[in-house]
Design brief:
The chain is α+β, with helices and mostly antiparallel strands. It folds into two domains: about 270 residues, no CATH class; about 140 residues, Conserved hypothetical protein from pyrococcus furiosus pfu- 392566-001, domain 2, CATH 3.30.1760. Helices cover about 35% and strands about 25% of the residues. It has 16 helices and 21 strands. The strands form five sheets. Strands 1, 4, 5, 6, 8, 9, 10, 11 and 12 form a nine-stranded mixed β-sheet that branches. A six-stranded antiparallel β-sheet has the order 15-17-16-19-14-18, with helices on both faces. It has a two-stranded antiparallel ribbon with strand order 2-3.
Length: about 450
């Protein structure tokens, strides 16, 4: 059973801040070093000081950016930069964004607390593996701050839109904030505090399963924090604050969901040589070449990407190599030696483009080992195909493998089967911002019913 609960959210003081766009950030794991500095300069109360602080020479276990973040969090509360709500609530959140020049989409979700359960429980299901180093670092921040500074983004099935309808009826008339950020994305959030509405949503969600869309590291870190706190406070009951995690829940049966592809760029694959690779790949793929001269590259690039993203494309991989004056499309052949590489893979994974790339191209044809695939310093992930190509053409990377996005139904099938996709298989757009709602984790406080 899935247990959701309201919270007394910690919110930015709108009278003091003025412009929410100046203090919000995306999640820590998509912020580049350049963006980190930009957020620091944007506003003295920007969330970057809490979620991704600066390291200083001489930092140690007693004085580091995690400790400084905790001090900043306390100071902001004392100075009323952040104010905690006096009564429990859900926070109904709308994000309107332009998916294309002619199409605006609106994604609805709500921020709440969710009772932490091990994945084996079956109420919260993952679909991606995580990095141990990232979880360890995030746990140190969580211990220092005693708070959820970012929410996990998860999906739930509700084709009848029951939960969204209930939340819409319970919204306060005036939104907590209503602004357009620097990327043109419009954010609106309402408090929902009526007990009757909260009870109705809690009951509706009990029958559902959630699928983590974004924030696997945050959820697993919360589980680690829960275990740490349960050992420290063994007499605390089930409703202790550390037994819950902050989540943004969105109905997977809505038009406002978008998943972007996550392309892979490698700095150096010593074993990669274009001619040899394509000869081996021809046993498994139909190979389509898009040759270009310097003067025609952009025109050919457009044709290549159009072919890659053609509607209905299935198991098609794009290839761009530094120094090679051609783009290549690889379309997986039907029933050609597939048993050789697929026999160890469950059926839901066999259907995924990212698995074809990882298991067949990288591991089998190029003999790339798992250690390299786990090394975040050797691989860069980009969601913009044109940007990925530019990085290869400028010789910052040796090779880029370009993909189509994973589909919602594929994510659901993989997660429901208890399986995992390769790292960075999905990228939901837009990201849920950090700074909308924070959740304090007072070990002596119970989550309200």
């Amino acid at each position: 059973m899935l247990e959701v609960a309201p919270l007394k959210g910690l919110l930015y003081n709108q009278e003091l801040i003025g412009n929410m766009d100046e203090v919000i950030t995306p999640p820590f794991d998509v912020i580049s070093p350049e963006e980190q500095e930009m957020f620091y300069a944007r506003h003295p109360y920007n969330m970057i000081r809490l979620i991704l602080g600066r390291s200083h020479p001489g930092d140690n276990e007693h004085n580091n950016w995690h400790i400084r973040a905790a001090e900043t969090l306390r100071t902001w509360q004392r100075e009323k930069v952040l104010i905690r709500d006096s009564k429990p609530a859900f926070y109904d959140y709308e994000i309107a964004y332009q998916e294309s020049p002619r199409q605006v989409r609106t994604r609805r979700g709500f921020i709440c607390l969710v009772r932490l359960q091990d994945f084996s429980h079956g109420s919260v299901l993952p679909h991606e593996h995580t990095y141990e180093g990232t979880k360890s670092e995030r746990l140190q921040l969580m211990k220092a701050c005693s708070a959820n500074l970012s929410q996990v983004f998860a999906l739930y099935p509700d084709p009848a839109q029951e939960v969204s309808h209930s939340l819409g009826e319970g919204r306060e008339e005036r939104p907590l904030f209503d602004f357009t950020d620097s990327k043109g994305i419009h954010h609106r959030m309402w408090r929902v505090s009526q007990k009757e509405v909260i009870g109705k949503v809690i009951e509706s969600m009990k029958k559902k399963v959630t699928f983590i869309a974004d924030g696997h590291h945050r959820y697993e870190t919360a589980l680690n924090y829960q275990r740490f706190m349960q050992q420290k406070y063994p007499r605390r009951g089930e409703r202790a604050s550390f037994n819950y995690v902050l989540m943004y829940l969105a109905n997977m049966h809505q038009e406002g969901l978008s998943i972007l592809p996550t392309h892979r760029l490698f700095t150096n694959l010593p074993q990669f040589e274009m001619k040899t690779f394509l000869a081996r790949a021809a046993d498994y793929f139909k190979v389509f070449s898009f040759p270009f001269a310097a003067s025609s590259r952009h025109k050919v690039q457009g044709e290549f990407l159009k072919s890659l993203h053609e509607p209905g494309n299935h198991q098609v991989i794009g290839l761009c190599v530094s120094g090679c004056e051609e783009f290549v499309l690889l379309k997986l052949r039907k029933q050609v030696n597939h048993h050789i590489w697929q026999e160890q893979l469950p059926v839901p994974l066999q259907k995924l483009d990212v698995v074809v790339l990882t298991e067949l191209i990288l591991k089998r044809l190029l003999s790339v080992d798992q250690a390299l695939l786990n090394d975040e310093t050797k691989i860069k992930y980009r969601h913009d195909a044109v940007g990925a190509i530019e990085e290869v053409q400028s010789k910052r990377f040796q090779v880029a493998f370009l993909l189509n996005h994973t589909k919602i139904e594929q994510l659901r099938e993989v997660a429901a089967s208890g399986l995992f996709m390769p790292h960075k298989s999905t990228y939901f757009h837009p990201k849920v911002i950090d700074g909308s709602v924070l959740n304090l984790l007072d070990p002596d406080e119970d989550v309200p019913i």
